[in-house]
Amino acid sequence: PPVRVVATGRLRVALWPERRVALLAKLELPDGRRVVVANVHLSVPKTGRGAAEASRVAEAALRLADGDPVVLGGDLNLRLSDHPDAFDRLRERYGLEAPTGPKAIDHLLVRGLEPVERPTRLPGEDRDVPGAGGLAIRLSDHAPVVGAFRLR
Questions:
Q1: Where are the beta strands (DSSP E) in 17-102?
Q2: 44: buried, middle or exposed (CB in 10 Å: 19+, 13-18, 0-12)?
Q3: CA 88 from chain center: how many Å?
Q4: Continuous segment of H or E residues that includes residue 86
Q5: Is the bond into 115 cis (omega within 30 degrees of 0)?
Q6: pTM
Q7: Which stretches does DSSP call E strand in the chain?
Q8: 74 near 40, Cβ under 8 Å?
Q9: How do residues 2-50 score in pLDDT, each as one tens digit?
Q10: Would the CA dihedral through 117, 60, 143, 45 be positive or negative?
Q11: To bridge 20 with a disulfide, which of 14, 48, 118, 126 should be the other Cys (CB 3.0-4.6 Å)?
């Protein structure tokens, strides 16, 4: 609260060599506007499937959005510097923009939102949270990515 989940979805992206699933949620903001958020961990580059998987997730997110803004984020396993065509396709076909950086593999891509603070990687220690007995719990093997966006 005050944000409300009004719809959810799952998309199986790959079964081999590892199972990959995208999770999607349509969120309703307090003013009634809606945003779709999709999170995914795509296949590693050596499979050659990352760009196609990203397109499938983008299509699913836009279908659920039905014209509402979209945030697609996660470990895309695609670097802008190595796979510019994949990011060009995501921008041209689906309107998804603002990759985190040329060497990053974790991204927040948006459609229908204006970046206020471009996506950026936080320091690695920000992935640790306090646990029982004063021990840290590591939330991920990746540093968190954050950004701030405004609805257009």
A1: 20-28, 34-41, 70-75
A2: middle
A3: 16
A4: helix 84-94
A5: no
A6: 0.90
A7: 4-14, 20-28, 34-41, 70-75, 106-111, 113-121, 128-130, 136-138, 145-151
A8: yes
A9: 999 999 999 999 998 889 999 999 999 999 999 999 999 999 888 889 9
A10: negative
A11: 14
